[in-house]
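FW: tagging you since you asked about this chain on Friday. Here's the raw sequence from the shared folder, copied in full. Didn't touch anything.
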Amino acid sequence: MSGAAPFAYAGLDRVFHERARLGIVTSLAGHADGLGFSELKTLCGLTDGNLARHLQVLEEAGFVTQAKDQDGRRAITRCRLTAMGRTRFADYLAALEAVLQQARAHEAAADNAASKTRPA
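HL: got it, structure written out here
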């Protein structure tokens, strides 16, 4: 096990695991055509600068793209998950599900052990 491991569980990618970025990616995952910057900002409850910084981290990782689109007469920035972003996010969710299953198994074992020690 590496001393530099950021989390106790492999697969909990640090890029996704931060709360704001998790909200961004979750929002984008439900919109195949992407979302406009303003829509995403509203959904995630972030400021312009905060959203821009988190999108930059996701874009540098190759998980998100940002492109200027036309919406009538005005330009909007459209944010989308990349194919790699979708795959890696699915991997992240699978790792998180494994953590939950492990926690449930430990809880069930603890409950079972506790019930055996209780007087009848």
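FW: The longest helix spans residues 83-117.
HL: agreed, and The mean pLDDT is 87.
FW: great, closing this out.
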